Amino acid sequence: MSIPRFILTPAALQNHQVRLTGPDVQHARVLRLQTGDPVRVCDGAGHEWQGRISLFTPQVVDVSDLEPCAANVESALQVTLYQGMARGGKLELTVQKTTEMGLYRFVPMVTARSQVRITEAGSNKQQRWQEIARQAARQSGRTLVPEVAPPMDFSRAVQAAAQFNLAVMPFEHADGTQDWKRCLAGHTALRTFGLYIGPEGGFTDAEVEQARRAGIVPVSLGPRILRSETAGLAAVAMALYQWGDLGGTA
Ligand code: SAM
Questions:
Q1: Any idea where the domains of the chain sit in the sequence?
Q2: For 78-243, CATH number?
Q3: Gyration radius of the chain over CA positions
Q4: Does residue 171 line the site of ligand 1, with CB under 6 A?
Q5: Is 137 helix (H, G, I), strand (E, B) or coil?
Q6: What are the pLDDT digits (tens) for 46-78?
Q7: Parallel, antiparallel, or unpaired for β 38-42 and 105-110?
Q8: What's the fold here for domain 5-68?
Q9: For residue range 1-36, what is the model confidence (pLDDT) as tens digits?
Q10: Is ligand 1 within 6 A of the CB of residue 205?
Q11: Which of 154, 197, 226 to mutate to test the pocket of ligand 1 (most atoms within 8 A of CB)?
């Protein structure tokens, strides 16, 4: 059995002893861990340590004798997904699956057709999505937990495009000359990539034009219309396969 891992806040890793609490104690119990067992802890920001359980009570689990571990499980490509929100949209699945694939940052995005206002887009949902990202990072062996940002409106999301080596907007009405393979083949060593996915209702023409003016490239994902969540998952996988380490490094 691989050594169990726990992802903690940097604050919890202040000294050479770590105290697990709450759901992490529950997880340790489910794994039937005992005092003396080895475990790995990481700070969610790319650093990992291995130690041994020194105390196990119903409320807390202490881990001591921490030694740093080399862990190279993060993709060199930093993908930021701006995912269009829709009323009742299921972003939990997108957060979980893109985290497993290696996403760097997740930004819920409110667009003209989101049917959700920024105010009601909800910080409580953000906390839930952030915990889903933390658990998915732990399960997939990642040392970095993608940040789930507060919901952002389309204009601010588009303004952020300048920070990326390349930013694309999958657009189902893009013509054949703008398909992903043809349009993006020329881009090789990317370090940062921004991806803008519309909600179930899609982007308006004005939004596509605003994005294009900001240097975001509209691309087709192919001849079939994908649901918003499907498009997000597919495009993240395609980017990490093409410029990252999903599928291995060439
Ligand atoms: N206009 C779509 C329709 O006719 O049903 C609704 C938008 S689609 C469900 C949600 C988002 O997924 C789009 O805004 C786009 O970002 C992306 N998308 C879906 N299929 C696509 C495709 N074939 N090519 C590019 N983007 C696509």
A1: 5-68, 78-243
A2: 3.40.1280.10
A3: 20
A4: yes
A5: helix
A6: 888 999 999 999 999 999 999 988 778 899 999
A7: unpaired
A8: Ribosomal Protein L25; Chain P (2.40.240)
A9: 689 999 887 767 766 679 999 989 999 999 999 999
A10: no
A11: 226
